[in-house]
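Hi Q.,

Before the meeting this afternoon, I wanted you to have the flavin-adenine dinucleotide prediction in hand. No need to reply - just skim if you have a minute. The sequence and ligand are here:
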Amino acid sequence: MNSAASGEVPRLFGRQVGRSLILGWLVLLCSALAACGPTPAPQIEITGPTMGTYYAVKVVQPAAGLDTAALRAGVEQVLAAVIAEISTYEPESELSRLNRNPSTDWVPVSANLYRVIAAGQRISALSGGAFDVTVGPLVNLWGFGPEERLDAVPAPEQVRAALERVGYGKLELRADPPALRKQRGDIYIDLSALGEGYGADRLAAYLDGLGATNYMAAVAGTMRVRGTNAKRQPWGIAVEQPTPGQQAVQRILPVTDQAVSTSGDYRNFFEADGRRFSHHIDPKTGAPVAQRLASTTVIRPAGADSAMMADGFATALLVLGEQRGPALAESEILAAYFIIRDDAGFREQTSTAFERLHAP
Ligand code: FAD
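Predicted structure with the ligand bound:
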């Protein structure tokens, strides 16, 4: 797909790294695209900060009465609600209060918090524990959580102590009424690998409720798209080339009525002793994964929780690495696109389900 013809949105990552540059690039590219080709349908487009990164929403042919200000107010209300539920960066969120609660008895949780943790537990089981929402103590120890960022390798005894607290089997869930029981009082849950997707799903539900039938709702590198773009074509989602400090497009994926999520190791990392340590932690070793798989993109049919599951699976596949990641994509029939570093730069690998989706 020609990027100039598709009304696309670049896939972008990162928390603090180059945020204003990223937003500026997004806005510039989108404006340039809107200026090309046949007369586009009317569209409202908003972007703004959220979750330490950004959101971007486009609604094509908005219903009468929906203007930019109303859309922004509605979108930001949805995102604020998500933060109040599942953010570890917001001390008074429901999740932060749960993390501070030392109880090992059943603790009632909201249906929404249950929904996100339960999704994480499903992906944990399917990935053999490569994905694990209890990995938070290690994420924080390595400086990738809400605490101070040290950009230093922790001592082995600190890693061992944090590992004691990690293990998705140490969490028990009850659906009705929703509740959770920790095996240890100091279990700490980190939902960052699912949160952008959960946010995109909540935005999609909000837009569906407004009667929108052609839209794109993204939280950083995870999005839901419905219908077509302003040029009445599938949305074009650009997957970034996984090169730190640069913004180049590796491939543009045409999507419609789908959820898309990319996880990468090239924006959120630090370097020490000549090695790069990224924010994806292997819950078995307690250390950031060190491998050649640089980026994974997962596409799922749109539906409740589809962006959240795409988000979680993209992280799981990345932690699993270049051998076991593609194997899980095959066994779970996931449409997955991998970018792997090699001596010549990068090589791409795709799952069978992805090939079927993008067959000519
Ligand atoms: P993904 O690949 O989607 O997820 C990687 C993240 O998952 C890691 O950073 C880690 O937290 C976790 N993780 C690492 N290893 C594993 C594993 N093996 N299994 C499961 N999870 C793992 N950031 C800020 O800087 N400031 C904020 O105010 C802020 N607020 C947030 C609010 C919410 C509601 C959420 C969900 C996140 C917030 N974040 C904030 C974090 C940030 O937005 C990203 O979610 C985070 O950096 C990871 O997203 P990603 O797409 O880069 O990586």
